[in-house]
Amino acid sequence: AGNTGTANANAGNAANSNATAAKPAAAAPTKESLMTMEKSAWEAWKNRDAKWTEENASEKYVGFGASGRMDKTASVKSYTEQKCDVKSYSLSGDQMQMVGPDVAILTYNGDQDGVCDGKKIAASVNSTSIYAREGDKWKAVFYGETPVIDPKAPPKPAAAKKEVPKADETKPDAATEALLAVEKKTWEAWKNKDAKALEEVLAKDFAFVTGTGRMDHAATLKSWTTENKCDVKSYWVGDAKSVSLSKDVSMMTFKGGGEGTCEGQPINTEWYVGVYMKDGEVWRPAFGMGIPMS
Predict the structure, then answer these.
(1) What single-letter DSSP state applies at residue 111?
(2) Which helix (H) or strand (E) holds 187?
(3) Of the ranges 68-82, 89-103, 140-154, 248-262, which one carries the lowest mean pLDDT score?
(4) Collapsed DSSP state (helix, strand, coil) of residue 121
(5) CB–CB of 260/35 below 8 Å?
(6) What are the tens digits of pLDDT across the range 169-198?
(7) Positive or negative, the Cα torsion across 11, 17, 20, 21?
């Protein structure tokens, strides 16, 4: 009789353990299933309805708005704080990239017609959404976009957005420091137009998104080396924050800029997002995107 309570407790613990173990994990995504979620997100944005973000964004979510980097709370708040009138939108050219079994990256083009805070929004943007498996659901962990640029008809040069690098108010944690070290190797190789160094750093399925579109590994190497029309005297990366998305995949958002020119224009300071996958004991960039500062 003295062991009855222990026996019952053990039985209860076993039942709870079995119930937890029996909870199904989210099925592997298809591009179509995630694009269905994405279209719902755009519809919610058009209708200024924060419910989609409240229910489908992870607590790890990061996005960018007029005020810069936003977490989930700030993103939800922006639905009521930002005044937008969106008449229409359409999404096309979608591609999905898996980074391990638990992280999916969607890239696509969004055409839109609308005004936000009295200013006409970009008519066409290259967009990236990142989703991560969290238990039995796929949750949004990132959204960013950059206006489409026609390489044959680039926009007139705007005033360069410069920002003097300053020491972070709080020292990045060890995980972020490790990713920053990898990112600096990538920037150094880009500065030096060093294809061999890039090959040694980047994941084999690396992709990068800019205003001109999505580049795969081979196109990125060409763009950053043999077709690189930049004269970079120095560069900096900082203001970084990272989050673990799975055992072997992490995401980091940060600012990057430099002294020098690209195609005759000053190098702008921009926001960036990077997704990194662990290869043995080494972190490798699997995906990146540059996002102009508002």
Answers:
(1) E
(2) helix 174-192
(3) 140-154
(4) coil
(5) no
(6) 568 999 999 999 999 999 999 999 999 999
(7) negative
Are the CB atoms for 243 and 251 separated by under 8 Å? yes
- Tell me the pLDDT tens digit for each residue of 270-289: 999 999 999 999 999 999 99
In sequence order, the β-bridge partners of residue 86 are 114
Residue 254's φ and ψ, nearest 5 degrees, are: -165, 170
SS3 content of the chain, % helix, strand, coil (to 5): 30, 45, 30
Which ranges in 193-268 belong to alpha helices (H)?
195-201, 217-224
Distances (CA, A) of 99 to 72, 104, 212, 249: 22, 6, 23, 7
**pTM for the full model?**
0.89
The token pair that represents 121 in the structure block: 């929004």
What is residue 242's DSSP assignment?
Answer: E
Maximal CA-CA distance, the chain: 86
Helix (H) or strand (E) holding 231: strand 230-246
